[in-house]
Amino acid sequence: MLDAKTAGRPAPGDGGNGMRYGRWRVTWGLCGAVALTLAVLWGVQDAEVVSTAASVLATVLSVFGALSVWAWRRSPGRARSHGDQLTQAQDALARLVQAQWREEARLRGLYTPLPLPVTWSDSPREDLRGHSPLIGGPVSCRVDQPDELAALLGPPPRPRRLVVLGPAGSGKTTFAVLLALALLGARGQDDPVPVLLTAASFDPDRENGTVWLRRRIAADYPALTDADAYGPSALDDLLDGRRILPVVDGLDELPEAAQQAVLKALKDAFDPDAPLVLTCRTEAFAAAVAGAGPLTGAAVIEPAALHAAASLEQLRLATAAGPSRTRWDHVAEHLRDHPDGALAQALTSPLSVALARTVYAEGTGDPSVLLPLTTKEAVEDHLLDAVVPVTYERARRRDPARRWGPEDAHRHLTRLASGMARRRSYDLAWWRLYDDTPTIARACSRATALAAALVVLTLLGCAVARSLPGVPPPEPGLAEWYVRSAAVGVWCACLTAVWIPARPAGPALTASLGGLAFAVPGMTVDPVPGVERAWYAIGCVCVLGFSFLLVLYPSGHPSPPPVPSRGTLTPAHRSRRLARAALLVVGTTLLTAVALWAYGLVVHPTGAAGPTARSAVPLWAYGLGLGALFGTGQAMLYFTRGTTTARDRLHPAATVRADRLVTLVGCCAAPLLVTMPCGLLLVLQGKAEAAEFVGLLLSMGPTGLVLALAARAWPYYTAARLLLAARGQLPWSLQAFLDDAHRLGVLRQVGPVYQFRHARLQQRLAHRDMVPTPRPAPDSDTRSGRPALP
Predict the structure, then answer these.
(1) DSSP type of residue 783
(2) What is the pLDDT of residues 697-713, one digit of tens each?
């Protein structure tokens, strides 16, 4: 059973009181501190001091609505998902998982013509099994028998936990996929839903087992986080109620130092009788068990070696009927004459059989070229080298107008594999593509680029402001000072984002440092006559820091995010979401209008000497306009950053589009948010002219725009993709290329990421030099060096 105290969230029934009350204390504390300061200054009877303090109070009150919404929206509600919602969520998850892995099994050819008849049974190594009565009796099954797979796990005497071991290329991932599909096909109403997860994304130094499970399932199946459909706690309750069966694939894909920690984290995350499936290479699991102990209550199984004759029969069945099947006659004779030869040993491995099927059974080459090879490793390397060019050449014969031929595909896939090897990852996550470009991967380079972009955009905005009729020109040196201070502010924000942890205080500290960066250059000039420079610097830190905060809280730190943002304009639950967005706009508008009305009533009750003496428009009217703009910006972010629905397709390209949508909406809202505090100050100072607001938006809006762009994954991905494409290392249409490789079976899809279909293929490509053309394929015409046409 999941331990709620270690899951990174409040225990059930707690309702998140500590977190919720903490945010409300911050909100009320800020307003209370300003109100207390105003009360103290009121006794000074200095009209100028009181007026200035009242301006600050009005500014804080104008955004109090947004702070209140923040405190309310981010508080975990006490409500829980009810029984019907949990059943619906579980059924929706089962449909999503089944549809996803059925398609993957088809693309991988797992049922073509039939699954390899690999027999899995109890491991002979007693040191890898835990001595527990929960294991039950002996375990044995064949992957080509779905009934045996479906009956593998269950209540005693069957085990509820399983560890799948074997050497590289033994078919552990294939077993996990077929097991999940078999369990889903025979699933009853109360049976848990198997969910395949890759262990490569588990960092035990940053999160425990339950937090990782929750994060990965929410990322791979975001429909479960749809609170309108399934309630606010569907995912947590499904995990707590053991209604999800985690199938964790590839423990050996983690660094050796992390394998023991991950095994221990998985043991700590579950009770001994909670369902769990884990796959790993045998030696890696033995090393992890030596430090963390065996997985309690888990049956440990390993595969029996395939018979070469059975593998050859599978290859014959996969070959088109007719003369093509006679190509295997020489192979059959060789196996009879050399039953212990290199080829016979290679055909005992499911990996080699799958590669031979792709290269020769589905291709046009002659498998006789395998006969002279002297070692099992040489046969496997030969097949790995041939699979990419043969696959793409076969696709080009079917469609001569294809965009990518064998040479281009081999070059691009080699580049991707090399980048994944440098990151020590088996996941091809598009939002981590920037790691392959040193210019973007280094924090200092990113900060320099962002600062330069802000300088250019600010200069452009100031130039446009000067050219507009009715907009007053900036004071001498003001534009230049602003550009310098803005560049320093973004530089500071970018660098501090690397060191400041992603906690509630992180954005506030980052925003304060950004405001301080604005204030330091202001100490060298005389910004406002009659105001001491120290007070002016403090004002810059408060006002501009708060402006930064309005952008940083909804967007995040100005650095590459660990996961992409989810956003959609789906019409699902539009009535509720539109109502909440409208409430947010109306509430913020009214609060801003009331705050400015109170300021005018208390500070300038007669209105004769008030800040609106030059204008017939009352303060509350300006409050309505500014509040509506501010509320609209917040509502745009709220409405867009919604969850997906169960009808949405889980695909890497879809996550790119979702993050791009959130980025574009944020870029529209951020300039409004960052200018809101300064716009209120213009109103309070009696400068509430349309030209003043336009000039402020053009000069300060680029700051919010750059901060919003720097906090999303899509801008970094786009910059890295274009840079690598310009160098000829990746295609210009990267997502189309990856989708094509997935449909051809070279890549496999696991949630929002791609992986190479075989880990050994990734390793082989990563360690080969990047060459203009690959070596001739085995079914090629040796005179021309190109694959032979049928």
Answers:
(1) T
(2) 887 788 888 888 888 89
Mean pLDDT, rounded, for 614-619: 55
Looking at residue 357, the DSSP 8-state letter turns out to be I
Amino acid letter, 156:
P
- Give the Cα separation of 167 and 176 in Å (integer): 15
Residue scoring higher pLDDT (348 or 697) = 348
Phi/psi at 735 (5° precision): -65, -35
CA-derived radius of gyration, the chain: 31
Q: Which of 565, 559, 557 is nearest to 441 (CA)?
A: 559
Q: Which residue has the higher pLDDT, 471 or 84?
A: 84
Name the residue among 533, 486, 539, 537 with its Cα closest to residue 514.
Answer: 486
Res 503 pLDDT > 70: no
Q: Count of CB atoms within 10 A of residue 543's CB?
A: 18
CA dihedral 268, 270, 275, 276 (to 10 degrees): -30
Give me the torsion for CA of 700, 703, 706, 708, rounded to 10°. Answer: -100
Cα dihedral 317, 320, 322, 325 in deg (nearest 10):
-50
For residue range 447-461, list pLDDT tens digits in order: 778 778 877 887 788
Q: Please give the helix or strand (H or E) that residue 521 lies within, else none.
A: helix 505-522
Q: What residues contact 318, with CB distance under 8 A and at least 6 apart?
A: 112, 113, 357, 361, 362
d(CA 655, CA 647): 14
Encoded tokens for 113: 């013509």
Give the span between the Cα atoms of 694 and 690, in whole angstroms.
Answer: 6
- Whether the per-residue pLDDT at 608 is higher than 60: the answer is no
pLDDT per residue as tens digits for the range 483-497: 655 666 566 556 555
H-state helical runs in 399-442: 406-422, 438-441
Q: Residue 471 pLDDT more than 70?
A: no
Ranges of beta strands (E only) in 621-680 are none
What distance in Å separates the CA atoms of residue 569 and residue 581, rounded to the nearest whole number?
Answer: 13
C-alpha torsion 264→270→272→275, nearest 10? -110
Residue 109 class from Cβ within 10 Å (0-12 exposed, 13-18 middle, 19+ buried)?
A: middle
Q: How much is the pLDDT for 29?
A: 56
CA angle 17, 218, 268 (to 5 degrees): 70
Q: How many CA atoms lie within 13 A of 324 on its CB side?
A: 16
Collapsed DSSP state (helix, strand, coil) of residue 280: strand
How wide is the angle at C-alpha 143 spanned by C-alphas 652 and 425, nearest 5°?
A: 35
pLDDT digits (tens, 9 = 90+) for 139-149: 889 988 989 89
Helical H segments across 145-304, by residue range = 146-150, 172-185, 209-220, 227-230, 234-240, 256-269, 282-292
> Does residue 546 contact residue 511 with C-beta atoms inside 8 Å?
yes
**Contact yes or no for 308/337 (Cβ under 8 A):** no
- Specify the amino acid at residue 728: G
Return the closest-CA partner of residue 387 out of 414, 421, 412, 357: 357
Cα(748)–Cα(757) distance, integer angstroms? 5
The predicted structure's pLDDT at residue 568: 63
pLDDT-derived band at 104 (thresholds 50, 70, 90) equals: confident
Provide the whole-model pTM.
Answer: 0.78
Query: Are the CB atoms for 605 and 597 separated by under 8 Å?
Result: no
Residue 686 CA to residue 134 CA, distance in Å, equals 77
